[in-house]
Write a structure and sequence with these properties.
six-stranded mixed beta sheet; alpha/beta; about 15% strand; 6 strands
Length: about 240
């Protein structure tokens, strides 16, 4: 009887708050996962790379995606990591401002570079060459942020120094609609991704998130916004909510 009574007991305020926090976490993460799925496509990823760097590469054969899929490191996942043109690029999507991205990327790039130099000796007189690290964060949260912002590891140092002996610089780009127009004009996929997120927000203000995603997916397919991707991944995108 006591066990039955315990099972029927209403959840405490603390448990209710914990459940609400988990629900909010899921809502917040779904855009990150859609971004990761979207740019797991090499052609779309090369399009984004070209838009960011002013290049016109067309051959995706040399583009190697090296994201640590399904591997949690220091409690987080990287969205998109790839090798191309002697660069190791880490692209992240963030729906809230995170000033700790340089430290996160330092941990991540260290792990990737360890994998990259496996089999090479670091104790010889020959210089071991490594790809150039590039870090970009695509921000589309509701908190006001400038179009472009540089995040530096040295900003986190407990003591300020004029010439840091260790530095990581991360470029944060605001990709909310109306921001970074030149980039959006160059990258159709990124522009349409932002339109999809805005569509979800529009419906989420009127209904629960799962229904909002359903409506947004349907509307975007009808208006030819990420239509091929959303048509093919409809169930997965909706399930992420």
């Amino acid at each position: 009887m006591e066990a039955k009574h315990f099972m029927e007991e209403k959840p405490s305020i603390e448990k209710t708050q914990s459940m609400e926090e988990k629900e909010l976490h899921v809502v917040k993460k779904h855009k990150d996962t859609v971004f990761r799925m979207l740019y797991n496509d090499r052609e779309k990823l090369l399009e984004l790379y070209n838009a960011l760097n002013g290049t016109v590469y067309e051959d995706t054969g040399d583009l190697e995606i090296c994201t640590l899929e399904n591997a949690i490191y220091m409690g987080f996942k990287n969205d998109v990591s790839f090798l191309f043109d002697s660069e190791m690029c880490l692209y992240e999507h963030q729906s809230s401002f995170n000033p700790n991205m340089p430290l996160r990327d330092l941990f991540y790039i260290s792990r990737q570079l360890q994998k990259y130099v496996v089999g090479k000796t670091l104790y010889s007189s020959k210089l071991v060459q490594i790809p150039v690290p590039r870090f970009v964060v695509f921000y589309n949260g509701t908190q006001e942020q400038p179009e472009r912002r540089l995040l530096r590891l040295s900003d986190a140092f407990e003591k300020k120094v004029s010439s840091p002996e260790l530095e990581v610089t991360v470029t944060m780009l605001n990709i909310n609609l109306g921001k970074n127009r030149e980039l959006m004009e160059k990258c159709k996929t990124l522009r349409e991704y932002c339109m999809f997120v805005e569509c979800i927000r529009k419906y989420a203000a009127q209904m629960d998130i799962e229904e909002a995603v359903e409506h947004a997916v349907t509307e975007c397919i009808r208006n030819d916004i990420l239509a091929d991707f959303l048509s093919a991944q409809r169930a997965e995108v909706i399930a992420m909510s």
